[in-house]
Fold these 2 entries.
Entry 1:
Amino acid sequence: MDTDLARERILDAAEDLFYARGIQAVGMDVIRDASGVTLRRLYQLFPSKGDLVEAYLARRDTRWLQNLATHVDTAAETPQERLLAVFDWLEDWFTQPDFHGCAFINSFGELGGTSPQVAALARHHKDTFHAYLRELTTAAEVAADTGTQIALLAEGAMTTAAISGTPAAARQAKQAAQLLLTLDTRHVAFPS
């Protein structure tokens, strides 16, 4: 098996298992069995479990953000519709049978206090996601602070959906985002 194929099979197995069961609950032998790659080859490509976790999170970050942006770019025409399309994408994600919440929140909860690398990857993902939402709000001619508030709605929806097991949080967060957009376009000022 060539290096690229072995790496992809390992990362596919790691993503499925880490996301479904948690990082600490899955050993390298389980990854080996699920990927069909020998333990020796696994350690050649990922010398430690920490290296594998970092590669899993980096790949998930790229894929998740690309999937979101593709949906937003194709699902809506106006800048405000594009911003609200984020919540439609979240709702669809929340309805997937393999949805277990945000992988970055989950990994930070498990390892953020003991792994600076995991904490940094989680922060990077959230910073990038929040910056994307602020870009969408700026394009909609809405204050950047509103983008930050909308990011908090999205984060809350992710956590609520994971705990409640229902996608309703996405619809509720979308309604709140619509309200924020309406208030912002009216230039309603809130006390600091």
Note: DSSP finds nine helices and no strands in the chain.
Entry 2:
Amino acid sequence: MTAANPRTANPQTASPILTVDLQQWRQGGDAAAQVCAAVDESLQKAGFLLVTGHGIDPFLPAALRAAAREFFALPAEVKAQYAVGVGGRGWIGPGLEANGYAEGTETPPDLKETYNSGAQTPVGIPEVDDYWFAPDVWPAETPRLRELFTAWTSQMKALSDDLLALMAEALGKAGEDNPFRNLAGNATWTSNINHYPPMTVVGDPEPGQFRIGPHTDFGTVTVLDREPGAGGLQVYSDESGWADAPYDPTALTINIGDLLEYWSGGRWPAGRHRVLPPQPESPEEDLVSLIFFYELDHDAVVTPLAPPVGRVSGRPDVIAGEFIKERLDAITLG
């Protein structure tokens, strides 16, 4: 059986973002080698991939979105009972986050609200557990949200471990040589359900205001289950500049974050992206994205890959948790 060529997976677009099939990778042999080559190519160009063959329950995202929409439709005073700041567990209301600050750009607040959950595997050190493993908060008004969100994040964590193994193999670090086997045994993660309300709710965007401002993510891999829209996801690459991200309803959108860029020695740039503000031609557009941000163990020591695999030499080791926290602090308003 001849494996499909992943480089022809997006014939409808000139996007540098390629689609790879995880089932091909799992076959091993030539099929896996083709997938690994496409991963390396796509991540070098844009820091993004589309992934099919992921095995995620196709009914789960739709059910989770429906439960999340029930929560987001509650009155603000009800949602306020579950309010937290950026990095917390619960409802992050409008006006608290501006992702453009991560790039040093002062932008108006992002036009979104978020429900957030995170890893629940504390290590027994209070100052570590309070920050990285804080208890989740679940709204009594929408009881199915807990069950569905927990099921989805469980599947996302397993997928993220596979993605790290795939990416290590793409750089010649397969099997026992995969460094993430020893760096992600109790990885930290957070998961956001982002609600992007319509223009009829938020009003006209301010100059320079986005649903999410231009930024890169901070960890290793991000898994995104998205709804396409006029005010949707755009990705930056040197080849295409800012361009709409390709969309396939059967695929998940994957991007790498700053920590994985650092580990790759700059070979793979973190995927720079933004979510456009609501557009005048679609004033009623109302989108919900499901996002899983994977990291490493909070105390993992990350040693950048040296040339010729890496592009930059002489970078010092970093501690994963310290690296990510510094970036989270940068995007928090107030």
Note: The CA atoms of residues 49 and 254 lie 5 Å apart.
